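Progress report, Aim 2. The chain analyzed during this reporting quarter is listed below.
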Amino acid sequence: MSRSLTKMLLLAAVISCAGVTTLNAQTGTPALTTVSSGASAPKLEQRYPRYKIQNQDTLLLSFPLSPELNQTVTVQPDGFVNLQTAGSLHIQGMTVPEVAEAVKKAYTGILNNPIVNVDLEDYQKPSFTVSGQVGKPGQYDLRTETTVAEAIAVAGGLSPTAKTQVLLFHRTSDDMFEVKKLNLKDVLTGKTPNEDPVVAAGDMIFVPEKFITNFRKYVPYTFNIGGYTTIP
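Predicted structure tokens for the chain:
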């Protein structure tokens, strides 16, 4: 598990009052004032954001007027690719159209008005993580539009020790992520069916343990007049 996910799990244990909180991913401290569950959270991302290039992605660069420069490049761990006759170019974090513009600029001194087509051949498959009190915690491919309730179902559903208030960790930028608390019981019973957010690539859902389950770990007995018995 990455440091970022580990930090999210630690934060999940102490988030109890906020409906939505924006946190710094590096320090784990709040970056914005807590927003109550009844208030709308600030819109910090697009509804349909373009895929951003990551390391190990493979791209095909095509030059229709200079086919001898056609090439396939792989993004290195430092975010750079090596271009034929044009040196290195940092493209990690860019969208495909942005890469096309960057490559065009890189070849401006070599070609006259270069035309470049960029195709994403291989990329990091989008995924989400479900952890905590579910049947099969782990990382899952994000193949179609999936809500939090559906993601938990994919992960085997809630375990008997699970709380129905779950936490959704959503990254809003490279160093910020948003934590939203969701009442899954209200969603599934139809009380608030529209409050089941869609999971985005890289999101993590954390399902906490019931308080009574934690309590029983340390006080595994129930008392009566005649003595005590073990709680099953």
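Confidence is low (pLDDT under 50) at residues 30-39, 225-231. The first strand starts at residue 20 and ends at 24. These observations will guide the mutagenesis work planned for the next reporting period.
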